[in-house]
Amino acid sequence: MSETDTVSVTEEQPALEPRPQPQRRLGLSGKLLLLTIPLVMIAGLLIYVPAIANFRMNRLNDRLAAANTAALVLDAAPSGMVPDSLARQILSSIGAHAVAIKMGQQRRLLASADLPASIDHDVDMRTMTAWSAIVDSFETMLETGNQAIRVVGPAPGGAQFIETIVDEAPLRASMYRFSRNLLLVSLGIAMLTAGLVYIALHFLFVRPMRHLTANLVGFHENPESSARIIVPSQRGDEIGVVERELSDMQRDLVSMLHQKSRLAALGLAVSKINHDLRNLLASSQLLSDQLASVPDPRVQRFAPKLMRSLERAIAFCQSTLSYGRVQEAAPDRRMILIEPVVMEVRESAGLASDTSITWISAIERGLSIDADPDHLFRVLLNLVRNAAQALEGRPNSDAASQQIRVTGRREGTVAIVEVSDTGPGVPAKARDHLFEAFQTSGRPGGSGLGLAIAAELVRAHGGDIHLVEGTIGATFRIAIPDRPVELLSVRNERARA
Description:
The chain crosses the membrane at residues 32-53, 182-205. It comes from Bradyrhizobium canariense. This protein is α+β, with helices and mostly antiparallel strands and 497 residues long. The chain folds into 3 domains: 28-191, no CATH class; 225-329; 333-496, 2-Layer Sandwich (Heat Shock Protein 90), CATH 3.30.565.10. The chain is 53% helix and 15% strand. The protein has 10 helices and 12 strands. It has helices spanning 28-75, 84-94, 130-142, 168-221, 238-289, 297-324, 338-348, 373-392, 449-460, 485-496, and strands at 98-103, 106-112, 121-124, 148-153, 161-167, 334-337, 358-363, 368-371, 403-411, 414-421, 464-467, 474-481. The strands form 3 sheets. A 5-stranded mixed β-sheet has the order 2-1-5-4-3. The protein has a 5-stranded mixed β-sheet with strand order 7-9-10-12-11, with helices on one face. Strand 9 and strand 10 (414-421) form a beta hairpin. Helix 7 (338-348) packs across helix 8. The longest helix is centred in the middle third of the chain and has 54 residues, at 168-221. The protein is rod-shaped, with a radius of gyration of 49 Å. The relative contact order is 0.06.
């Protein structure tokens, strides 16, 4: 075997360099935890803002309620006369400097002690809004010193309002204590909530994603191992769908890789066989050349056909070797008559002398096609042989019911050739992979290559081949369009040159 005849089925792969290990980064669990904690803290902050404002309002309302109680006591004294010591004691118990009430047009100071020089803030609880309560609460916490606050609120009985003067420092201190306690409680709740959310999301999402990731990494290391196929869970959500789809995809990929491996081994074996077969056929061709000198008329009649068959067989072997090197030549197209090719196909298929199958040729007179004659011969021969093999499964049928029909017509610039038979037809399970190699053969020992070869040759001509639905048996339609006029004229000029 010469060096030029050697066929490499698989290209030489360069040595794979070890992939660099990715740097260890924060995983999905850590990112989830870091995302959960600040979100919970933001939720706690949103709770704190109205809570501190509500705390301040409640403290001021408590001062007004205490002032109302003190006003009832002070107003119940005879002639409104209350000793200064008792008034100071009452004001000290409610934490106020003064208590006043307005009834009608009269404003009455019920008690006072250690009045401040000025009033720093006025707070009217009757017109307090949520936004002003929030703003005032933060202003109170940000201030320093001990400012005086005049608090006005509704009064019991027939009075219009009651007012009291209190210090801001005790209120600010109580707000700080409330904030500290709320912060501690919020931190505890945030940690508990973050932990619960983390655990829930970890088991619902993170762990299944780790399982998917580990399976993908393991499958990438050995994609031909069926043991690396993921076993989907019974989850009904999106992750369950991903697991099932991934399992199906991996199973299809493993099957495809196994088939590719078998095809590669088969291709190598076929290449070796074709190389030796080509040499044997070449020797047979040399012997058949000597038949041309035999004067027997029958020998002179069959010798040219034998020569053409041997030449075509040698060409087939050579094309197989070229295909192994991915050097398939483009079709040598020219305008040829279809009918002589069909008659040669009939003779090559052994149907010219076969009386068990009726041969019907219905080709338009003078119909021509723009195609490679050898390629067209191979396409029709594969289809006719498939039809004959389909009819072989019906031995008890007469010749009238076992027919192979070849029709040809022209539709504009497209030549249409149909090959049909009256056999059982194509099985439904084989139609999905009709023109794929090693997929569609429905008979023992068949490889399913005939239709795959025919489809490849037709597509090389820019044509189409498909199974016609709704016919008796199986009908395959071939449509090959003519090349543009400009291309034909260039080819003709080159041929004449």
